[in-house]
Amino acid sequence: MARYIVLLGPPGAGKGTQAKTISAEKNLPHISSGDIFRENLKNETELGKLAGSYIQAGELVPDDVTIAMIKDRLSRPDCAAGALLDGFPRTPTQARALDEILSELDGQVVAVPYIKVGEAELIARLTGRWTCPVCAQVYHARFNPPKMTGRCDQDGAELYQRPDDKEETVTNRIRVYLEQTQPLIDYYQQKGLLLEIDGAQAIQDVSVALLAALPKD
């Protein structure tokens, strides 16, 4: 039976970093829904063209198109023993579709780690990013500050904050994520698969807690 892990976490929770750790430790391919979309759009597959038509019209890509892309990706040989899913499912409807796909592939979701971080901490993490307009070096007020406040270490240029790193935008992104994801969290909690991980810890401590919580092979 192939074993699949669904990783959940809001923007700023460090999900990307932890996904790499789980993927390496559990020897599972990291399947990101964003990567799948980009691959299909770049290669102009039939599904990519279909998704592109919705994107160009400014519409959401329908569930059936997204699900078909995921099914195609999970059917490849590297996912035969399982995979780590990141960014899919996003809703209970998609979660039920995933269950159906996996039953056809003789697999199942065995764990859903949810990296939980308070809203104030997420905002502090995401709004601390500053970028150099010349060399594109990214700094963080807390984790990677420049030697001189507001100036790039490389070229002395004045740092700026990208629109999507500003507090109003960040706060909205986090609230939308939490509102949209709560039904999915409830779905997996009811199935006894949700594993809440304290994401406010140091990165290494989050990794240790995550790996300890996952079912043993």
Question: How would you describe what is shown here?
Answer:
- With 217 residues, this protein is α/β, with parallel strands linked by helices.
- 47% of the residues lie in helices and 16% in strands.
- It has eight helices and seven strands.
- It has helices spanning 15-26, 33-42, 46-56, 63-74, 92-104, 119-127, 167-190, 203-213, and strands at residues 2-7, 30-32, 82-86, 107-116, 129-131, 138-140, 194-198.
- The chain has a five-stranded parallel beta sheet with strand order 2-3-1-4-7, sandwiched between helices. A two-stranded antiparallel ribbon has the order 5-6.
- A hairpin with a 6-residue loop joins strand 5 (129-131) and strand 6 (138-140).
- The longest helix is centred in the last third of the chain and has 24 residues, at 167-190.
- The radius of gyration is 19 Å and the shape is globular.
- The mean pLDDT is 94.
Quickly list its features:
about 220 residues; alpha/beta; two-stranded antiparallel sheet
Q: In DSSP terms, counting alpha (H) and pi (I) runs of 4 or more, how many helices?
A: 8
Shape: globular
| Rg, Å, rounded | 19 Å
* Class from secondary-structure proportions: alpha/beta
Annotation, overall tally of beta strands: 7
Order of strands, main sheet, comes to: 2-3-1-4-7
Beta-strand percentage range:
15-25%
Secondary-structure element order, N to C: EHEHHHEHEHEEHEH
Helix content: 40-55%
Distance between the termini: 11 Å
The profile of the biggest β sheet is:
5 strands, parallel
Average pLDDT: 94
The stretches of 5 or more residues where confidence is low (pLDDT under 50) are none
